[in-house]
Prior knowledge:
It is built from nine helices and four strands. The protein is α+β, with helices and mostly antiparallel strands. The chain has two domains: 2-69, Multidrug-efflux Transporter Regulator, Chain: A, Domain 2, CATH 1.10.1660; 76-182, no CATH class. The protein has a four-stranded antiparallel sheet. A hairpin with a 2-residue loop joins strand 3 (48-50) and strand 4. Helix 1 (22-29) packs across helix 2, helix 4 (76-94) packs across helix 9 and helix 5 packs antiparallel against helix 6 (118-132). The protein starts with a strand and ends with a helix.
Amino acid sequence: MAFGCYDPGMRHAPSDSDLLTTGKAAALLGVSRQHVVDLCEGGNLPFRTAGVHRRLRREDVEKFARARASGHKLRREEARSLWLNQVVAGKLVQDPDTVLGLARDNLTRFMRVHPEGMSAYWLRRWRDVLDQGADAVLAALTSTSKEGIDLRQNSPFAGALPEDERQRVLKAFANYWRRRGTA
């Protein structure tokens, strides 16, 4: 097995019984398998590879889960998602019928593509939030809670921002994050 982002100074490699698939790690974290893959590729979760498959140490996944539950600072991708969704929240306040309609249409389409698994779970949660109305949606879009972060990983608001506006927000966020790191 080749290592992904494990510390090369590790005294011994974990045994296969200590390793989880991305699907099992996703179930432990309550997120989609794709989100776990993204966390691995972003350097947020250490992994090793077996052929083309990623394997994660249970210890690392549990440590990551504890950090999330303890209200840690937002990681870069979580903060970037929050920035984008705050702009979506602004669109929602200006034109709730259009934005909620788009989200419902996307949700229907996404639920056909992902009828089961963790993505389906979060899509059902979004359906519940949408059913509660604009105030609940605004809270979910701008929340820094664990659930808010997880909801945004499976957002039904694709297309709510024109691409040029989305790119401006991403550029502003990148500048902010860079300055934040040097402050």
